[in-house]
Amino acid sequence: MLTKDQVEQYREKGYLGVAGVFSPSEVEELGRVTDEFVEQSREFTEHTDNFDLEPDHTSEIPKLRRLKSPVRSHDVYKRALHNDKVLDIVSQLVGTTGVRYNGNKLNIKGAESGSPVEWHQDWSFYPHTNDDLLAVGICIDEMTEANGCLLIIPGSHKGPIFDHHQDGHFVGAVTDPDFDDATAEKVELPAGGISIHHVRALHGSLPNRSPKPRRLLLFQYASDDSWPLLGSDWDSFCSGYLRGEPCNQPRVTQVPVRLALPTSLKGGSIYETQTVLKSSTFKHASATR
Q: What is the pLDDT of residues 80-113, one digit of tens each?
């Protein structure tokens, strides 16, 4: 369980890094299985339902950018999703004993490559009746500034939901002209650690400029009494429960919402959605690299 100081940091800054959650043997297995999927991606020249590829991916030099549904792809990822240490922490932060998940992906930044993820708020993609939702990133590799670590604007989870639309369509990145990333903070962790960020926290990541990869397994967790505003059927909603019983009495709180509508012109992954951006959202943060 988290200490009082750790919980306070999450409440104040909207993010937290916790080292040593996964053992070296667990990390090794996650890395080995992930390498197997990178090898499998050699067979493809275009994105698939599960593989999202870097623009310069080839069969000779495979560059898998994202495994879209790792939990469905291999049991090692499913076990990580159900890790009791992670679920105890999540329950502590979302404030309910019941825990549900609503998404998973594995982002891969290969050595001296890796697409950036422009500044955005997860809340813009999937708002709920309350905002007791967060994302946990499991570090399969050491995560550093050099290899494109997670960047977060501290305290942004308490602020507005920035516009993520351009020319009338959702683009999955901040387009608000008043946005400034000058206060961005780095989330650096050893392999086996986890990053945690609130669903409304502004975050992104730059390309990997180092000779070491950065593989981050991401799970989206939610309180058991939050309901997606963009809709869900009952069976799909219930299938996400990891602890507790399905709740048909959602807790509604006063939180700012801006729907991801009209929908994006390009789908498939956040990377593809963000390709239509007219300019990068990185300003001060990129200048430090």
A: 999 999 999 999 999 999 999 999 999 999 999 9
- pLDDT band for position 285 (cuts 50, 70, 90): confident
Q: Which two tokens stand for residue 38?
A: 């990178």
- 52: three-class secondary structure by DSSP: strand
User: C-alpha distances in angstroms, 19 versus 22, 26, 223?
Assistant: 8, 14, 23
**Residue 78 and residue 15: Cα distance in Å, rounded?**
24
> In whole angstroms, what is the distance from residue 122 CA to residue 84 CA?
24
pLDDT at site 5: 98
Q: What is the pLDDT of residues 128-148, one digit of tens each?
A: 999 999 999 999 999 999 999
Q: How far apart are CA 55 and CA 101, in angstroms?
A: 30
Q: In DSSP terms, which residues pair with 214 in a beta bridge? A: 109
Q: Which residues contact 24 (CB under 8 A, 6 or more apart)?
A: 191, 192
Asked if 204 and 162 touch (Cβ cutoff 8 Å), the reply is no
Top CATH class of 4-287 equals: mainly beta
CB 221 within 8 A of CB 101: yes
Domain positions in the chain: 4-287
The answer to whether the bond into 62 is cis (omega within 30° of 0) is no
CA 284 to each of CA 49, 180, 184: distance values in angstroms, whole numbers, following the listed order = 35, 8, 8
- The Cβ of residue 215 has, within 10 Å, a number of other Cβ atoms equal to 25
Q: Is this model's pTM higher than 0.90 or not?
A: yes
Q: Which residue has the tokens 């291999």?
A: 74
